[in-house]
Amino acid sequence: MFKWFLNMFKGLFSDSANESMKRIRSQFCRELLVPSRHAFKLATDAYLRFADAQEIREELFTLDRSINKSERAIRKELVIHTSVHGTADFDQCLIMMSIVKDAERLGDIAKNIYDLAVSVPDVPEDDVKKILEDIQKRILTLNDTCLKFFDLPNGEENSQNEEMESKNEAEARELICQAAAIEDACDQQILWFLAEKNDNERIDVAYALAFRYFKRYASHIRNIASSIVQPVHKIDFTGKIVKNNPLNNDSPSESQNEEIRENK
Predict the structure, then answer these.
(1) Closest listed residue to residue 116, CA positions, set 217, 210, 194
(2) CATH numbers and ranges of domains, the chain
(3) What is the value of pTM for the model shown?
């Protein structure tokens, strides 16, 4: 599906339609992907105690309201675009309708992580903190890569060739696999904490929730990236891509879990 992002600027549609879709794409990057990334960074920094939760609260919730408002605005723009320009690029509009919801959910998940930081004042243990910090960095990198697919510099749309299109699709498939690896790593941690029974059950539940939220953030980035390589009816379904493009799983090993257990 990456080709339609490029082809819409190659004369397939009217100049006004081109400009309309370009504006919507720009809104998606500037008003959804970028602030969602910032919200995730703020919230996870608060949970990992790299930032004071109360100090970043207003900025985080302002971002969340802005993201929600932008989602509605982009949906409205897509309806107007279809009404004005007809159904020639209806598939693009369907895809954008789908991925703006995923982007909006990124902001909600950031808020979930912040709520966890506030409700569980305990500082994450060193070993758990190290694992979460690593996953945080990997997710932020995914977000940056995903942004690159949609945020083409001015003029670059017309200079894309088949080689570049293939490169972008290959990178999108790799991103999907990286996101899946992060989800698997989080699942391993969740299952371990849910199975662990000790006097720190409240802390274990908090850790399981943290990994769950990190996983869901990666999942929505994965869904957005799927729009680059999947047809409309297969957006969000990337199991075969992951299966056919296995990556080395950098998830925490059992030895790391054993180290956490010994330090409890």
Answers:
(1) 210
(2) 2-262 (1.20.58.220)
(3) 0.80
